[in-house]
Amino acid sequence: MTTTTDGAAAGTVSRAEYCVIACAEAWRGSGELLASPMGLIPGIGARLARRTFAPDLLLTDGEAMLIGPDGEREGWLPYRQHLEFVAGGRRHVMMGASQLDRFGNQNISCIGDWRRPTRQLLGVRGAPINTLNNPTSYWVPKHSRRVFVSKVDMVSGVGYDSAAAAGPSATRFHHLPRVVTNLAVLDFDTPDHTMRLASLHPGVTVDEVREATGFELVLPAEVPYTREPTGEELRLIRAELDPKGLRHREVPA
């Protein structure tokens, strides 16, 4: 039996629920910012943030509507306004990644030499404009060396070293707040913006994360654990935001 931070008995908090909490925290203190979560657990996390500590957060259905935390329509989001949010830095997207390197360069385009790839993926899509114009975080449901690589095969989302090489026009609004995985939370809060282990999900060890990462992570002197959910957050996740338990399909217990 574990207890939540408000002292309420919670039973066992699942790994998926810690991931929801870690994703929700990406939008803490955002104010009236457009949250664009891509994936089931990031979506639950954004809605949880809206229901609790980020009431001014704007949520999108991924197409043309603004929606409330219960999925009800709140307003129309025409494409031109969506682009204004992006270009003005008033959007925080949480994307997926097929590959990520130590500076946060993301690949969702291909595996192997881009001229003759061994695997064709989604394509670059909106990753460059996302990473150069508004905060971009990442969600990785299976932390492994296949994803966390020393060098991405193709840069889709721009990392800190690539932005610096491109100059001030690329670094002005570039910001990668965090990477959430099924094992841990990572960030780039280091002098040279290389990836750092920010927190471990309870039950995970530093060695597990290092073994699953294809480069050396920056390690603080003491690595904290991802925060516990409150009793009300668990109730919302389990009873209202994901009553069918789909989160456990993405991150099994």
TL;DR of this structure?
The chain is of the alpha/beta class and 253 residues long. It contains 9 helices and 15 strands. The protein has a single domain (2-246), classed as Glutaconate Coenzyme A-transferase.
What's the SSE blueprint?
Layout: E1 2-3, E2 9-11, H1 15-25, E3 34-37, H2 40-51, E4 58-60, E5 65-67, E6 73-76, H3 79-87, E7 91-95, E8 99-100, E9 106-107, E10 110-111, E11 119-120, H4 127-133, E12 136-140, H5 160-166, H6 168-171, E13 179-181, E14 184-187, E15 196-200, H7 206-211, H8 231-241, H9 247-250
Parallel strand pairs: 3-4, 3-7, 7-12, 12-13
Antiparallel strand pairs: 1-2, 4-5, 5-6, 8-9, 10-11, 13-14, 14-15
Helix pairs in contact: 1-2, 2-8
Structural class: alpha/beta
How are the strands of the largest sheet arranged?
Answer: 6-5-4-3-7-12-13-14-15
> Under the CATH scheme, which architecture would be assigned?
3-Layer(aba) Sandwich
Beta content comes to 15-25%
Provide the domain count.
1
CATH class, please? Alpha Beta
**Helical element count?**
9
Radius of gyration: 18 Å
Q: In terms of quaternary structure, what is this?
A: single chain
Question: Strand count, sense and closure of the main sheet?
Answer: 9 strands, mixed
Residue-averaged pLDDT? 90
Residue share in helices?
25-40%
Q: Cα distance, first to last residue?
A: 15 Å
* CATH fold node name: Glutaconate Coenzyme A-transferase
Shape: globular
CATH superfamily annotation: Glutaconate Coenzyme A-transferase
Number of strands: 15
What is the H-and-E element order? EEHEHEEEHEEEEEHEHHEEEHHH
